[in-house]
Amino acid sequence: MVTRIPEYSLRERNTFGMDVSCALWVEYDSPKDLADIDFGALPQPVRHIGGGSNLLFTGDFPGTLMHSAINYIKYFDVGSDRVPVAVGAGVLWDNLVAKACADGLWGAENLSGIPGEVGAAAVQNIGAYGVEAGDIIAGVTCWDTVNKEKVAFKAPDLAYGYRDSFFKQPEVKGRYIITGVLITLSRIPSPKLGYKGLAEMFPDGTADSPQAVRDAVLQIRASKLPAVSELGSAGSFFKNPVVTAEHFTRIADGFESVPHYELSGGLVKVPAAWMIEQCGFKGAKVGGAEVYRNQPLLIVNTRGAQPEDILALKDKVIAGVRERFGVELEMEVETV
Ligand code: EPU
Fold this sequence. Notes:
- The chain is α+β, with helices and mostly antiparallel strands.
- It has three domains: 2-68, Uridine Diphospho-n-acetylenolpyruvylglucosamine Reductase, domain 2; 73-224, Uridine Diphospho-n-acetylenolpyruvylglucosamine Reductase, domain 3, CATH 3.30.465; 242-335, Uridine Diphospho-n-acetylenolpyruvylglucosamine Reductase, domain 1 (Alpha-Beta Complex).
- It has eight helices and 20 strands.
- The chain has helices at 33-36, 93-102, 118-124, 196-201, 210-224, 245-252, 272-278, 307-325; strands at 2-9, 21-28, 46-49, 55-56, 61-68, 73-75, 82-88, 127-128, 131-132, 137-144, 149-154, 176-186, 232-236, 242-244, 261-262, 267-269, 285-286, 289-291, 298-301, 334-335.
- Strand 10 and strand 11 form a beta hairpin.
- The chain binds uridine-diphosphate-2(N-acetylglucosaminyl) butyric acid (EPU).
- Uridine-diphosphate-2(N-acetylglucosaminyl) butyric acid binds at residues 128-129, 195-196, 224-225, 235-236, 239-240, 259, 271, 273-274, 277, 295-297, 332.
């Protein structure tokens, strides 16, 4: 079934809580519906969104916003150690994780509590506590809006990287609408507890169940990240930048120690939160937008922030970090 609503308010459709609208909202609940939609006849441009948890609307959207309500979780459980699970693109990511953990299946537990939907998770390659969605995604099915046909991609085609995938490449951006995602979970215990906060909670390096890891992740998240139902945000606003070893030496000059992760090729990932904090931006404000005090990688909407407030605050943070550390922060949130 396809639902079409003109002049649709997006207020409840973006976790930043921007009070904006689109010319047409189109929601569908079956992959087959996409074959019946004449994309050329819709108000342009046409864009697909998920839970709106990683987006900043900078104003009213003049075209059509599409949204998937394809909702199923199907196990292909043949009793082996690996359990393939097919999931509709419109399923809330955390409902999938909650179910996997309740059923004692390993693989998704570190990705607990992340807002958003399964289709968008596969585009964005969401990640937390040492695991990325791409680690457990075996493939996706899509509707190709150019050739007007169903297509399937296997994991190696998806080019997963840090918050990056095939679907974000400029040549294909917007072309494929994800309808379903195939996830591989495991019955064999495989806890990944290396990330700092988790390692502290599981000091002997083991966990009894995926549910125990989920509970710990939810506890850590609650202590750092605001619930989007209480304080509008789109999660991390910036990506963690990667610099050369030589640049890192200059960043670290004068500090006793600087948090960092060494990557291959002599590159170093430096937490943007640390740099933003050093620049004194914790709690910095423009209008109703504020650099979140508990985790300065986030910009939050404290009260009635306008898109311009958020953009101005973002520019201020980027300029400050550039001046102090010579690092160009990139947005993790996507603007629409
Ligand atoms: N830090 C500070 N000051 C602070 C907070 C953090 O200096 O106020 C430093 C600390 O050294 C800390 C380090 O930053 O160890 C990393 O902080 P944290 O573990 O909170 O993670 P992050 O790098 O800031 C990333 C993801 C988060 C994800 C966490 C946990 C990105 C852009 N963000 O944040 O993802 O939850 O790791 O894995 O990679 C999101 O994408 O929306 C998101 C929330």
